[in-house]
Amino acid sequence: MAQSQQKEMESNVHIADTPITARNWHKHVNWLNVFMIIGIPLYGCIQAYWVPLQLKTAIWAVAYYFFTGLGITAGYHRLWSHTSYSARLPLRIWLAAAGGGAAQGSARWWARLHRSHHRYTDTSKDPYSVSKGFVYSHLGWMVLKQNPKRIGRSDVSDLNEDAVVVFQHRHYLKVVFTMGMVVPMLVAGLWGDWWGGFIYAGILRIFFVQQATFCINSLAHWLGEQPFDDRNSPRDHAITALATLGEGYHNFHHEFPSDYRNAIEWYQYDPTKWTIWLWKQAGLAYDLKQFRANEIEKGRLQQMQKKVDQKRALLNWGTPLSDLPVMEWEDFIEKSKTKALVAIAGVVHDVTGFVDEHPGGKAMIKAGIGKDATAMFNGGVYYHSNAAHNLLSMMRIGVIRGGSEVEVFKQTLKDRSSLQGGIY
Ligand SMILES: [Zn+2]
Ligand SMILES: [Zn+2]
Fold first, then answer.
1. What is the bridge-based pairing of β-strands 396-400 and 347-350?
2. Record's superkingdom (predicted)?
């Protein structure tokens, strides 16, 4: 009885939640995905050995790479995952067809995972979390089975309203077969290279588009700078941008996901942004969303400030004022007789070891000993540099009660004590 109960409990545990062992590893593998993203490309590579690459077919394969790649970056990603702009019906059909040709699942499936990725970046609910390693974020998450309950929830109800997305999702296999294999083959067939079209513009081109997209999940969370926020892994790098049709400015993208741009500088490589802009000129796209430059600069400045603060914390700035002992003015005068003490802005500094080194000469500094030298230090005699201010704060030893010699207060005390017969 106990044994059967245990078996039942085990069968309720998703395979992804059990450790990989020599006996169960094959159950962890998603064999369909392995066939799609490793098996088919491997077959293409082997076939390429026998099929000579014609120049026309090569040009067509590269052109079709950009066409289907843009289906992912401008369609699946910036339009459907982030609604960073709106597209008219012909453009949506075009993008659903092109994106389908990239063989990366339906737009609806892709956007759902991508929205979870943004919402739960780097956590266990992130479907392709880089915190599980570079290879996992690149393709491990597809090669190994995942427990669907683990992936963070995201809302794609808006996509259910888009007839193009719904149609593409329902007829996905037909779309991927037609756009991924048949079209590249038919076009190359125009110059008689059917088989070359199938291998180069079909299979191998799919392989490169897939790998480029996978780089957004791996490389863009691993290589580069973090000018906007360093709490999570996304990074900006020109090399990632080159490989991904401009999706390499990923730190910016995670910070401002509904901006139709990934690169904000004119000289940065973002062909996806340029294409969306051209579609706008052609009347196919509208309502391109852009964060205000003021808000973007705020983010950049806050991150810079954080870095500066971190560096600042590494240096010794002298004992903090709040940690210094409080001294009476008389105390300060008394101690000045044995040590070279100067009071500047209510803070007592021991300059004993510095008298001989003072760039302005011994006499100058000695003139301030046992006195309030605030005016002397702050421009009364000489306008001291930042370096001098910093050096001075390293010599702090105490603060004076009341900030300086408080004559009025002392006079009041004297008057009171004489009135009360010296009791005070
Ligand atoms: Zn990301
Ligand atoms: Zn995104």
1. antiparallel
2. Eukaryota
Scanning the structure block, which residue is given the tokens 């910093």?
390
pLDDT at 389: 87
State how far the Cα of 377 lies from the Cα of 383, in Å rounded to an integer. Answer: 7
Q: Which of 19-33, 158-172, 338-352 has the highest mean pLDDT?
A: 158-172
Give the pLDDT band of residue 147 (cuts 50, 70, 90): confident
Strands 341-344 and 285-286, by their bridges, are unpaired
How far is the C-alpha of 111 from the C-alpha of 104, rounded, in Å? 11
CA of 109 to the centre of ligand 1 (A): 16
Structural contact between residues 287 and 276, judged by C-beta atoms closer than 8 angstroms: no
Ligand nearest to the Cα of 272, by number: 2
* Cα 249 to ligand 2 centre (Å): 11
Q: Ligand 1 center to residue 208 CA distance, Å?
A: 19
**pTM of the entire structure?**
0.81
Neighbour tally for 415: CB within 10 Å: 11
User: Which tens digits make up the pLDDT trace of 239-291?
Assistant: 999 999 999 999 999 999 999 999 999 999 999 999 999 999 999 999 999 99
CA 141 to chain centre: 21
Residue 230, classed as helix, strand or coil, is coil
Q: Which ligand is nearest to the CA of 253?
A: 2
